[in-house]
Every structure is written in C-alpha cells, then in structure tokens.
C-alpha cells in the first residue's frame, strides 16, 4: 500500500506549518530499513507531492505504536520538520 499524492501533500503541509510537531505516518512499513528507504527518497525529492525542506525533515520510530503492534511485522514511524 502506498500513500496517495493528496495524503502526501497534507502530511507535508502539516509538518511544515507546525515545526517540531511529530505526525504519525498513515501506514506501517515492513521494517525499519524500508521506512528509512522511503523517507530518504521523500527527503531527496522523489515525490513532488511531498514538498519539505530536506535539511529540516526528520523521522523516528513510533515506539508506542510499535509496542502495541507486537510481532506483526509492522513498523510505524513519525515525521516532522525541525524549526
């Protein structure tokens, strides 16, 4: 499952309009490496719908959600832009 362009645009707006506020990514990844690959590609401009300053864009593990998911092979993350 991939996040559509409209959702990518809303996520980019949410983190640029509210710096330092962490926002949950709407779908899980298969692994931390898959999440890193996708976030790096977004940071590097791979999808024009997701426009953020690459120097300010950050992501991290959503630890609580990952604990609650247990061993279901889902990896949740959060994103932000730093101020």
Q: How would you summarize what this structure contains?
A:
With 83 residues, the protein is an alpha+beta fold.
Can you lay out the helices and strands and say which pair or pack?
Elements lengths: L4 H13 L5 E2 L7 H12 L13 E5 L1 H7 L7 E5 L2
Antiparallel strand pairs: 1-3, 2-3
Walk me through the structure.
- This protein is an alpha+beta fold.
- It is built from three helices and three strands.
- The longest helix has 13 residues, at 5-17.
- The protein is globular.
- The termini are far apart.
- The model has no long low-confidence stretch (mean pLDDT 93).
Percent strand: 5-15%
> Rough shape?
globular
Rg from alpha-carbon coordinates: 12 Å
Main β-sheet: number of strands, strand sense, barrel status? 3 strands, antiparallel
Strand order of the largest sheet: 1-3-2
Count of DSSP-assigned helices: 3
Q: Fraction of residues in helices?
A: 25-40%
Q: What is the averaged pLDDT score? A: 93
Order of helices and strands: HEHEHE
Low-confidence stretches: none
Report, as a whole number of angstroms, the end-to-end distance. 31 Å
Total count of strands = 3
